[in-house]
Amino acid sequence: MLRSALKPVTHAIRSVMGTNGLAQRVSDLELTVRQFGAAIHASPTLSLPADGTASATTTSTPSLDVNYLLHNSRGALLRGMPSGAQRLLSAGCAGKWYFDWVEETYGRVAEHLGIEYYMPKPEGLADNVTWITNTASDMSAVKSASCDLVFSGQNLEHLWPEEVSGFILEAARVLRSGGHLVVDSPNRLLTAPLNWSHPEHTIELTIEEVTALMRLAGFEITAAYGIWLCRDSRTGEVLPFDPNQPTPGWSIIERLIIARDRPDDSFIWWVEGVRSDRTPDAAATHSMMADLFRSHWPERVQRLVVPAGRELRQSSEGEWIEACAGEVGIVMHGPYMPLRAGRYRVTWQIQSPASTELPIAICDVVALGLAEPIAFQEVHTGDSRISLEIELPDTTFGLEFRCASTGGAAFAVLRKIELEEHIA
Where does CATH 3.40.50.150 sit in the chain? Predict the structure, then answer.
């Protein structure tokens, strides 16, 4: 009888929580410049109104895709990278379009090495391109002091801590004295307050952190720029990531121009460094990156999303998200993140005055690309700690720890999850 009564509730909630719906929509919004590259590279130039703004409601002018904006801003800085390189190494190459893009902006080099582990070698590469299947932290196929320029575009944020420090040290090894390392990446000083997330990102670094790591690895910093202003330094106000959202007092062009000299206030930082004759301090580089990861991973885990319209209640424990009786739908989801292979336990806190035979809520764990939840539990009683244990055989992307209301009774869920790693 109970199983029969649950069927319509379970069907309704699964239709709301289905991974092919919500997760895919979130994915579409949060794809990085790297994933948009091929389509953007081939797209025509967008025209803007005379005031430099783009409106999503203007029929004569298309809305401005933020990924288009970021990609072309990065292309502008590629044009200004230290010139004269004969041997360029790129860490993280998404496809043939990437090499075409670099040649179009920076110019043709005698040899372009591409280090890429996760994407297959594309067809039709130019004769000056050498494709190396390996991770960014292992450039053993490249001789020491053999490169003039190393470029890591939107790559560091995809790496685990030992891979970040390993890449910077490997870049120092393969570059000749006087060669240049150029790196750009999203800025945690903005991704955190924007609650911005990407299914493949571990933690984002700040410009202060990456320049400190580069100095430990033997580099002197020669330039630092910002792309896409997302904080008003006068007021501290965080500006919308989406250029089509209203931003009183700011035009798109102003945000693009001012960002260049304000990397700390920009969504993306861009750093250039020259290889000095100093011996890299490998132990200190690895240690610093490990410390940064331990410090900032907890914040990354809590980039949880609350659908618009939900009531929030403040307490000493944090924000509680309210769900009303009779209401069916997602109450909280996110953080849309990667986890390495291993065993984990995730815990939600739920409060409700009711205990019912039918479930009042459903908690589950889903991942991008998987049709079914990895783990799933119905909630029948209030004042509960709901824990699910999961085992991941491989690195898994786009993980979300979700809570949804069945409509059976009112409840509140704490906008915070506990994630324990490597449980026995």
Answer: 31-301
> CB atoms < 10 A from the CB of 388, how many?
18
> Dihedral of CA 113/115/121/123: which sign?
negative
- Please provide residue 146's backbone torsions phi and psi, each rounded to the nearest 5 degrees: -110, -5
Whole-number Cα distances in Å, 19 to 6, 15, 145, 175 = 20, 9, 47, 44
Residue 130, helix vs strand vs coil: strand
Token pair for 93: 């190459």
Domain with CATH 2.60.120.260 in the chain: 2-12+304-421
Task: Tell me, rounded to whole angstroms, the distance of Cα 349 from its chain centroid.
Answer: 26
Q: Regarding predicted confidence, which is higher, 54 or 76?
A: 76
Quote the distance between the C-alpha of residue 4 and its chain's center.
Answer: 42
Total-model pTM: 0.85
Q: Which CATH architecture has domain 2-12+304-421?
A: Sandwich (2.60)
Q: Are strands 375-379 and 361-366 parallel, antiparallel or unpaired?
A: antiparallel
pLDDT digits (tens, 9 = 90+) for 278-308: 999 999 999 999 999 999 999 999 999 999 9
Are the C-beta atoms of 238 and 231 separated by less than 8 Å? yes
Q: In whole angstroms, what is the distance from residue 314 CA to residue 321 CA? A: 9
**Sign (positive or negative) of CA dihedral 172, 178, 261, 280:** positive
- Tell me how far apart the alpha carbons of residues 323 and 269 are, in angstroms, rounded to a whole number: 39
**Residue (of 209, 231, 204, 144) closest to 179 by Cα position:** 144
- The Cα diameter of the chain in Å comes to 77
Q: What residues contact residue 59 under an 8 Å CB cut-off, 6+ apart?
A: none
Tokens standing for 1?
A: 């009888």
CB-CB contact of 4 with 172 (8 Å)? no
CA atoms of 99 and 173, how far apart (whole Å): 23
320 and 6 Cβ atoms separated by less than 8 Å: no
R_g (Cα) of the chain, nearest Å = 23
Classified as helix, coil or strand, 341 is coil
Residue 32 tokens, joined = 């990085």
Q: In the numeric block, which tokens belong to residue 391?
A: 């085992």
Q: What is the mean pLDDT of residues 76-104?
A: 95
Q: State the pLDDT confidence band at 424, using cuts at 50, 70 and 90.
A: low
What is the CATH T-level fold of the domain 31-301, as seen in this structure? Rossmann fold (3.40.50)
Q: How crowded is residue 390: how many other Cβ atoms within 10 Å of its Cβ?
A: 19
CA 65 to chain centre: 17
**H or E stretch at 219:** strand 219-229
